[in-house]
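Subject: design request, 413 residues
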């Protein structure tokens, strides 16, 4: 008989804000290190308290990312292992351990440092203004998620990578099939081969880009990745294509989820909406609170290299742990009034970007995009409201809103 923690594997539960947080709270309070033995997944331990997740994230020697980085159904995991020689199918930064992780992280580290990101501010503002203008042109009603939140961060990261605007639709579709593979409206299909084909389409697309940038290098991120050297040698193809995939997908999907979820939070907390509208200088703090509040990356996994004891539970070497970031970000043991949305909160301790050596490389870009968008949008709006209940993507890895129809009015020019 499956226990309560097995519901973590249910995308319909984890793909809904209310049911997800209710489940995580119950586990955090009553069973913070819960053993999950689900028939469709390899067993793992679910970790739901802030301090445990922080301690594990800081100890990259005893808790490693390989060989199991995210929850994947057993059948698909075996198919990936057979086709790619790895249970993850990819070899991105989130799948690596040191020293390889450190070496490959350094390939793009300068691109994502705070100073470099600040240099992108003008371009980000321009793109944000384009999407605010688009929203105004739509006549007072739109689906804020589908028409705005999904597309704005996509344009930003595609411009940085060097992908043509006309190919963004294809990239969005592939991303939704990759991260929303458990959602019946986003999945390419229910068969293992369908999931493998999504990865193969990514590989084919970015292999062509690598070959082009080797011959015609430019000043974009694609050229950096295509011509990168690691230990004096060209980057291995799997590492290279995986780097492109994580940059192109995580680089927009998580930010899109925060823009959409952040707007929902503001609409549900009108006092915070008015506070931010009246004081745009709070936008960076608000962006951090939106990221904590939405926690788009639901989990990452680690594998123990030695026996450890957590909350009285003995976890044996070689066993897997799943770190649930939304649970950490609502843990009242570490965060004051965690169920209150407060745009003036000091969010230095929030864990939506992870923690330690694997902390999200693109966090400063994400904050800038969210900050600039709401700084531009809110002063121009005179009114905005939800028209109907939002819909959520059914997913337990990266999740957020699928749809949120809104009605609004802009101030006269």
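Subject: RE: design request

Done. Sequence follows.
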């Amino acid at each position: 008989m499956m226990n309560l923690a097995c519901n973590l594997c249910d995308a319909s539960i984890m793909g809904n804000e209310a049911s997800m947080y209710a489940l995580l709270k119950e586990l955090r309070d009553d069973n913070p290190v819960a053993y999950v033995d689900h028939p469709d997944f390899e067993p793992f331990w679910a970790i739901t308290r802030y301090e445990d997740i922080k301690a594990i994230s800081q100890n990259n020697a005893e808790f490693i990312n390989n060989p199991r980085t995210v929850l994947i159904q057993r059948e698909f995991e075996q198919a990936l292992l057979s086709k790619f020689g790895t249970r993850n199918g990819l070899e991105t930064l989130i799948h690596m351990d040191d020293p390889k992780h450190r070496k490959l992280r350094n390939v793009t580290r300068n691109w994502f440092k705070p100073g470099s990101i600040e240099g992108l501010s003008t371009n980000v503002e321009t793109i944000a203004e384009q999407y605010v203008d688009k929203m105004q042109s739509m006549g007072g009603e739109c689906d804020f998620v589908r028409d705005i939140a999904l597309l704005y961060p996509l344009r930003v990261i595609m411009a940085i990578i060097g992908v043509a605007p006309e190919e963004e639709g294809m990239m969005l579709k592939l991303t939704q099939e990759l991260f929303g593979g458990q959602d019946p409206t986003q999945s390419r299909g229910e068969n293992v081969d369908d999931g493998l084909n999504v990865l193969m389409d990514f590989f084919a697309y970015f292999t062509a880009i690598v070959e082009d940038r080797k011959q015609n290098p430019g000043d974009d991120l694609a050229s950096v990745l295509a011509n990168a050297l690691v230990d004096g040698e060209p980057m291995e193809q799997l590492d290279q294509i995986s780097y492109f995939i994580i940059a192109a997908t995580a680089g927009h999907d998580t930010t899109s989820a925060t823009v959409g979820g952040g707007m929902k939070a503001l609409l549900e907390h009108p006092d915070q909406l008015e506070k931010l509208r009246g004081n745009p200088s709070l936008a960076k703090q608000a962006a951090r609170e939106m990221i904590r509040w939405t926690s788009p990356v639901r989990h990452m996994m680690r594998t123990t290299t030695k026996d450890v004891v957590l909350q009285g539970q003995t976890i044996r070497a070689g066993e897997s742990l799943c770190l649930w970031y939304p649970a950490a970000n609502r843990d009242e043991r570490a965060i004051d009034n965690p169920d209150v949305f407060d745009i003036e909160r000091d969010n230095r301790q929030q864990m939506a970007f992870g923690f330690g050596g694997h902390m999200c490389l693109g966090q400063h870009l994400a904050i800038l995009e969210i900050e600039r968008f709401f700084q531009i949008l809110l002063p121009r709006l005179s009114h905005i409201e939800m028209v109907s209940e939002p819909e959520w993507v059914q997913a337990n890895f990266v999740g957020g809103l699928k749809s949120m129809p809104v009605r609004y009015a802009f101030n006269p020019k």
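The first helix runs from residue 11 to 14.
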